[in-house]
Amino acid sequence: MTVYVCEDSLEGIFTGIYRAYEEKRDRADTMLSLEDEPMLFAEHVKVGPDRSRAAKVIRTLERRFGQEDYLSLCMALAADDPGKAQAVYKTVARGLERNSAPGHLFDDLADGDVHRAFSLARGASREFHHLQGFVRFQEVEDKVLYSAIGPKNNVLTFLMAHFADRLPRENFVLFDDKRKLFGIHPAGGSWYLLQGEEDLKPRPCPSEEEERYQEAFRGFCRAIAIRERYNPQLQRNLLPLRFREYMLEFQ
Amino acid sequence: MQYLAGGGEDPLKGKLEILASAAKYDVACTSSGTDRHNDGTGTGNCFAAGICHSFSSDGRCISLLKILFTNECIYDCKYCINRASNDVPRAAFTPEEVVRLTLEFYRRNYIEGLFLSSGIIGNPSLTMELLCRTVWLLRNRYQFNGYVHVKAIPGADPELIRAAGFLADRMSVNLELPTAEGLRALAPGKHRKNILTPMRQIQTGIRENQSDLVVYRNAPRFVGGGQATQMIIGATPENDWQILQVTESLYQKFELKRVFYSAFVNVTGDRALPSLPGGPPLLREHRLYQADWLLRFYGFQASELLDESRPFFNVMLDPKEDWAVRHLEQFPVEIRRAPLERLLRVPGIGVKSARRIVAARRNADLTFQDLKKIGVVLKRALYFITCGGKMMYPVKLEEDYIVRNLTDVRERVRFGSDGMTYRQMSLFDDGRFTGAVSAAEQRQAAAGQF
Ligand code: SF4
Question: What residues are in contact with ligand 1 under a 6 Å CB criterion?
């Protein structure tokens, strides 16, 4: 058994997959892991992230499985789960072996690894879709928009891409509170990530105007509810409490 | 009638509260149907699946800035809180105010776009013109590229409706009440014909636009997200069968994208209206949404679900279960072989799980365990399916027995002695309609509303 120990990032895991293929080991006897926990009777190989190798893997995945399935693989790798690298590796290997057509990589849900990768991707993309709606920007100094989030899965990159397309002319900053990771988008430019300390965080000193809009939105949320249909339980099911600490209408 | 006094509180906020509250009974407010990227110059984009930005305390999704332009109205529809004879605070926005609110809310990610309706101020054309001007400003002066849903006001100049169609992603004309008789009884100023005319105009516009788009790829889009409508359920005496037939013909004859149902809330206390001591008819509304999905995505026809001799939905079973127990001769369905259309008719199997079954069985002999992974709700499906010729448990394919089992556990929870009502019950109905459509719609489906 060979265990490739990779860094917990797209680049890291894709590099791991590259190595596993390069060395042409028996697939059933190969594992990808994120933790360097020694396993008995296993050879451990540390793999550092390598941009050009990862890029090669990405190109292959996109070409063979199509954009949608490739994105699902990325979503699975954004999940907060120690077994994700292995599940994705096995799913990819299986897809390559069986020559899955684009859009059919996740067909074999009866297979344990495919199902695992599929479930992880589904969980992460669910959270991503939630946050597409639940992120609340507030204006801090110089018209910069700022929002903090605390996602279970590492979905910041997906959100940055989403908001960069949506608000190309805004300066905005998204801060992942759990991972201390900043996404920064300068108006008219391309966005980037920055691992940083709390003190990089802009101190929200809401202007009068900012407070006005926050108040207006709170009022709107109250006004739009129908009293005769009051149903806080349903509201909680659809908008889990963990998101609310970051949402102004619940403050 | 009182006008809102300025000063003190933020006047814009005061207006917003009046005009959002006045719009809250309008339900046709998803942000779905359009996919559009930003070219880097404006503000906003759209996703066909729609995005929910928040949920209000009634569990309904907040996606769009849903407001009336004004709640003044020259008409006196008996069910409507804004009717001319009702004594409520009135307010009106200016187009600039709506534009500012939309843009400022949008960049803070409070909303997905604008839903603009209005009471009738002056006359229908004047009202429509105000709506048009607002959206025109938003689109052309401020390059707003997010979602816009505008009401077509019946009786307005067709040119104005056409102009609005080139600015909006979605348009809707409210049917208000399911039948012409209902309308006559409760909305003295309105006629069925006046409502269907703009609906037809928009349908024709969409069709022509589609053929234009084939020829000129960059032709401007006309109501690209499709047309919708809504009707109020329970204010007039129509039965479910009548309503479902109306729905079916709206989909077939008017090619609507969506029909929405709004459980009647008696807000005016008019003597012509039912008093509904049990609250709004939420279960009925919910059953209609379920049946609506069966029509749109599961290949059912209205006449299979209800007919003259059974004009109301079953309270205990959802429309698909109800159909299945009345057609036991078509079951069990063999999971490893049955065509997609038959899988879709099994209770507990949604559109997604049916597709996944078809994909997964190419490579494996599926077991009940696999079905669970795929997302099939086995406790409902098990009476109706076999895997490799075997049922999950030895069960009788017999109507009374199945009905008892399908309703047993659930109904004890739902109608149990702990005083739970339908309001809580609707929560448990989510899983089964994981349909082909959008995540946003699924979430809303759980609420029995859209
Ligand atoms: S036309 Fe009728 S339903 Fe519409 S706002 Fe006026 S009174 Fe209400």
Answer: B 73, 75, 77, 80, 82-83, 119-120, 187
- Closest CA of chain A from B314, distance in Å: 22
Helices (H), B68-191: 95-107, 124-136, 158-167, 180-186
**Amino acid, single-letter form, for residue B235:** A
Confirm whether B155 is domain-assigned.
Answer: yes
Q: How far is Cα B32 from Cα B50, in angstroms, rounded to an integer?
A: 4
CA distance A166 to A160: 10
Query: Rounded distance, CA B13 to CA B232, Å?
Result: 29
Asked if residues A32 and A93 have their Cβ atoms less than 8 Å apart, the reply is no
Q: Is residue B207 part of a domain?
A: yes
> Nearest C-alpha to atom 5 of ligand 1 is from which residue?
B119
Contact between B222 and B211 (Cβ < 8 Å): no
Q: What is the pTM of this model?
A: 0.90
Show which of B201, B229, B257 is a domain's final residue. Answer: B229
What's the pLDDT tens digit per position in A14-56?
999 999 998 877 788 889 999 877 777 788 899 999 999 999 9
Please state the atom number of ligand 1 nearest to the C-alpha of residue B176: 3
Buried b (16+ CB within 10 A) or exposed e, B77-99: bbbbbbbeebebbbbbbebebbb
Sole residue written with tokens 């917003």: B16
Q: B47 and B179 share a domain?
A: yes
Which 3 state secondary structure label does DSSP give B262?
strand
Count the domains in chain B. 2
CATH number of the CATH domain containing B66: 3.20.20
Condensed to tens digits (0 to 9), the pLDDT of residues A124-156 reads: 999 999 999 999 999 998 889 999 999 999 999
B220 lies in some domain: yes
User: What is the span of the domain harbouring residue B192?
Assistant: 11-229
Residues B370, B225 share a domain: no
The answer, for B346 touching chain A at a CB cutoff of 8 Å, is no
Same-domain status, B70 and B208: yes
Per-residue pLDDT of B354-396, as tens digits, reads 999 999 999 899 999 999 999 999 999 999 999 999 999 888 8
Q: Is B74 inside a domain boundary?
A: yes
Domain boundary among B181, B202, B229: B229
CA B319 to ligand 1 centroid distance, Å? 33
- Test B25 with A226 for CB contact under 8 angstroms: yes
Q: Does B41 touch chain A (CB under 8 A)?
A: yes
Which residue shows structure tokens 């004859």? B253
Contact between chains at B108 and A249 (C-beta distance less than 8 A): no
- Complex prediction ipTM: 0.94
Taking an 8 Å cut-off on Cβ atoms, the answer to whether B423 and A225 are in contact is no
